[in-house]
Amino acid sequence: MNNLKQQIKANTTAVASALLLSAAVANTSAQEKTGILGIDHVGINVPDMKQAVNFFTDVLGFSAVTTLGPIPLDDAWKKNNHMQPKTGPVTIKMVKAGTGANIELFEYKDNKGSTQQPGGDDIGASHIAFYTNDISKSVAYLKSKGIQFLGEPFLMPSGDTEGETWVYFATPWGSKMELVSYPNGKGYEKNNPGTILWSPKDAVKNKTEKTDSNLLTENEIRSLVEGHLAIWNERDLKKREVLMSKIYAADIEMIDSHFVAVGHKEINGFVDGLQQKNPLSRFSHIKSIDVNHNIARLYWQNGTPEKPDAVTGMDLFVFENGKAVKLYVFVDNKK
To answer: Is the full-model pTM beyond 0.85?
Structure first.
């Protein structure tokens, strides 16, 4: 009975892993087709451009960079964008908001649209969240500048956002914004997920800690190592090639005790041969991934659901420029 339970559990885990991998590959494929790299800017309408620029520069310390306008808008444009026909020209300023996406400000002269801020449950309501490592310090500073807060900072006690503290505040013109902080990470990161949410704190840490070898953050390296496991478990050649292009450098060297494989093609051939020889086997890690600067260590096992640890070993990675350039493979000798 225990063996049956273990087999059911292993099969369930394998199915769940396959579904997650399939979704990850589909998302990667879609992103490659669109060519989208990430968020460039967030646009918001403001009633007074000078007031808004002063808030973002003098209060938050950001930088206003570019200006367009005033630009007259023709009737067709207003109709297509669901604007009032008598609204006047638009002026646009782009603000560099620290580390992260830019903020684009729109001011419409003689604006005939609604001046009512959307409610929290209105369709289209939105807010911008700003990350801080010390939320108490940031709240105190903004309060000294006369900024109104819509509550007190709240620490998430459990779940995916465990460890995150957040609080909403209002801009001088009434738009809702947010302060958020999680200097020790969020709850979901403890489960070694394949995808880690982007954060300004990681980007800043990465920037300050980068050396000539382009040091990655620990989360970025762990994500790449998880991607390495996905490569070795992927049965579809084209999907595996897509994953390889994300994880491995084009001239990656895989050094085994018996051979050296260089580049995606040679590694792909080895993976194909391994999968044909053991069609039911899958790789998984035995414990958490160890990271030391641009080097990572992965203890792995390979086998069937009935015997997942038929083969065990350790992979040692060296990362440069955001990808694995060296992969040293150590296979344990079974006694």
So the answer is: no
